[in-house]
Predict the 3D structure of the following.
Amino acid sequence: MRVLGISGTPRPGGNTEVLLDAALEPFRVAGWSVDRVVLSQSEIHPCTGCDACRDGSGCHLPSDGMEAVYRAMRTCDAILVATPVYWRNVTAQLKALFDRSYALRDEHPLRGKPGGAIAVGRGSGGGQSIALTIIHNFFLSAGAVCVPGELNGVSAVADRPGDIADQPNRLEQARILGRHVMAFAGKESL
Ligand SMILES: Cc1cc2nc3c(=O)[nH]c(=O)nc-3n(C[C@H](O)[C@H](O)[C@H](O)COP(=O)(O)O)c2cc1C
């Protein structure tokens, strides 16, 4: 079994990557293969809306970090997406990944697969719930199944890189989300 974990922060070692890794922990323990896409290390250019993918021939932009995402979307059994809150939204890097997955819209690589969402922002009520909704809307648009953690997703408050490491409760919530997503995988798909 394979899980795709995506971190949307452009900041290496940021809180988002720490939370994603906590959510991936149960998968690693259970012996799953992990495809980890961290957008602090992978460049994904934005969709230009050329619509060349409309005939099912895939994205016509020059090859970039999205190739690995397309492969992982096709082969994964579950997906986790984590983002920092930027202006009460997901990051531009993550939005570019969402937009570029439009090239596979007729293939539906995520259809019926369970997905979990994580958002971290500086403020309490800083827009985490909006960012979670945006990730959940991506899952729903792709035909994936939104899986709750303790609540609807993991909503965390942290600012400087690594701050989240001092919040064992929030890291445990991320592990719980991972366990829930794992439990949904392998059930009969739609
Ligand atoms: C461009 C930018 C916009 C931000 N906008 C918000 C925001 O709207 N709400 C919020 O709570 N935090 C906001 N933040 C703070 C980050 O979400 C916060 O520092 C988070 O911990 C960063 O995650 P990372 O460590 O994974 O990069 C913003 C940060 C940046 C750089």
About this structure: The mean pLDDT is 96. DSSP finds five helices and six strands in the chain.
